[in-house]
Amino acid sequence: MNLLALFQALESPDEPGLPIATFSVAPVEGFTSFMVGKDGRGRGALLVAGAHKVNLPAIKLQAVEAYFGLRCSLQTSGQEPTSTRLSIIQCPVSDDETIRFFFSICATLVSLLGDNPTSDDLWASVNRIASLFQKLLRAPKRSLDGLFGEIFIIWQSVNPLSAIRLWRLTEEARFDFVGERLRLDVKTTSSHHRSHVLSFEQTNPPADTIGIFASLFVEQVNSGTSLGDLIEDLEERLSSEPEQIFRLQEQLAATLGATLHTALAAKFDVQLTTDSLRFFKAVDVPAIRGESPMGVSDIHFRSDFTQALTSELNVLIQEAPELAAFSARY
Questions:
Q1: Of 59, 138, 169, 304, which is most buried, counting CB atoms within 10 Å of its CB?
Q2: What is the pTM of this model?
Q3: Residue 301: its pLDDT value, please?
């Protein structure tokens, strides 16, 4: 569902001094309730027919606005303008990556709601989107290289749905991916030397679990595959699971915060990262082990992975079957 392409094909509407919102619109294929719109200032919007209550309050944030039961003038190519009441979700900013992200979220919203949504369902979904966009006002929680490593591991996997279901729920999680027995953390380096910062908890996982590190080389380049490209491909592969797509989008917003628009445009040497992927058991890498001293917490240290033996993925899968989700698809 490429809502961005529909938006990009629209011309800005004529606005002959009408006292109501005016949009050029295109219908979303396969749905009767949704249209993509562009206003006279070139701003993008998702318009929803039929699901509105005029007494619902508008939502106005820096990166998203929503109006319910608003009288609109609609201009469709080759047809006379029409006037009707609609609910509108609009992106008030115009940078390319934010617009791309906005319409990606709108496509997920359409899939989650289905045709002819109730006003209550629309209200709940719009508030969820508003909460997501609020996160874009905050400082980033993790480095771009680190997040790229996590997204890459999901993207390259043969089963991204299973992989994303294991993905962390918060930015403060000790491990990036957690299963019944699996504790997997992704470590990236731009130095081409496998030296990574570890935490005491990561190298001393809970009993009856297996701690694993995925080590990657990451290099930003002028001409390569952008983080946004990986996200777009993942969304296509997860198209039958809109709830998981929305969770992916929520994690991106929570992790990248105000840097999202520049982060999505950042390009990486994906072939280098693919070729560099190695797995290590936590027990095999140099680390601080045993009981931590009383009163000491938040222990972090740098470990040289070149001193450790790598582990074959098919061998690790025998100890932690959930790791099979991360087998490479190529």
A1: 59
A2: 0.86
A3: 94
